[in-house]
Specification:
By secondary structure, this protein is α+β, with helices and mostly antiparallel strands. Helices cover 21% and strands 39% of the residues. The chain has five helices and eleven strands.
């Protein structure tokens, strides 16, 4: 997976037209862009469980676009034009994710994912309307056929570190674990429980979850890292498997984080009789 930590601590991002948000990151000759809407739905674990994915409404297109004439910034500009109708689907979750490499005047190559998912009852009809309106959509020489997502391989990353005054994070320890779900409706309850564990402060609850999720060998490193950490974060990243046989890394992360301040992120709670 490309290390494009577009974590769903996406609270810091600025709204754009039609209520969608965008994040662009640059590194050398590589540019990643994430456009998504509506903003409140992508922050998993922050709302009631009633706001959750509805089965059978996760569809995606994935493709690679290679061009000698199209720069990474021009590709992003073209994607802006394509998503200009997102205001017609105010309750639907929409994602346009691109990862581009190539310098000015050279051939560019862009991995692109365009996806929709319904997290609200009102979005189900919008999902069908979107699929009907975008069936066979032409975009930069390719036809965007949306296919249902039939399986998610989810990588959960847990990180402890020090968050500086300027917002920079110095990692101390992190670990990954993989799990599989049939869809976002099956994944979301597990994601919501992780968010609750990160939000609470009982050390025993946290360490029990670390052992069950990441393995017993990770208990000691995480407990040691807690001594010097003021920030805890988990994120789930998808590899989506489509009904048409394609798969793609959904590098927009869904998770939760907490700055602990002067107090430990987790402490041992007194038990009855102690």
């Amino acid at each position: 997976m490309k290390n494009l930590a577009l974590i769903a601590g996406l609270l810091a991002l600025s709204p754009a037209a039609y209520g969608y948000q965008e994040r662009i990151e640059r590194s050398g000759d590589r540019v990643s862009a994430a456009q998504f809407s509506p903003a409140d739905a992508v922050v998993a674990g922050r709302g009631p469980v009633a706001l959750a994915p509805i089965a059978g409404n996760f569809y995606a297109f994935t493709g690679t676009f290679t061009s000698k004439d199209l720069t990474c910034d021009q590709f992003i500009a073209a994607s802006h034009q394509m998503i200009s109708d997102w205001n017609l689907y105010p309750h639907l979750n929409l994602y346009a994710l691109s990862w581009c490499s190539g310098q000015q005047g050279q051939q560019s190559s862009t991995e692109f994912i365009y996806a929709i998912d319904a997290w609200r009852p009102e979005a189900v009809a919008e999902a069908q309307a979107f699929l009907k309106a975008h069936r066979g959509l032409q975009f930069l020489g390719q036809t965007l056929w949306f296919s249902a997502v039939k399986r998610l391989d989810v990588k959960t990353t847990l990180s402890l570190g020090v968050l500086g005054a300027n917002g920079g994070l110095k990692p101390i320890h992190s670990s990954d674990a993989w799990s599989e779900f049939s869809g976002t409706d099956q994944w979301y309850p597990a994601n919501y429980e992780k968010a609750k564990i990160v939000a609470q402060t009982d050390l025993d609850v946290f360490m029990d979850w670390v052992g069950k999720t990441f393995g017993g060998d990770e208990r000691a490193p995480f407990k040691e890292a807690l001594v010097n950490s003021n920030f805890v974060q988990f994120s789930d990243f998808f590899t989506v498997h489509l009904e048409n046989g394609q798969k793609a890394v959904f590098w927009l992360g869904f998770g939760s984080s907490r700055k602990c301040g002067a107090q430990p992120c987790f402490s041992k709670a007194p038990r009855p009789g102690e």
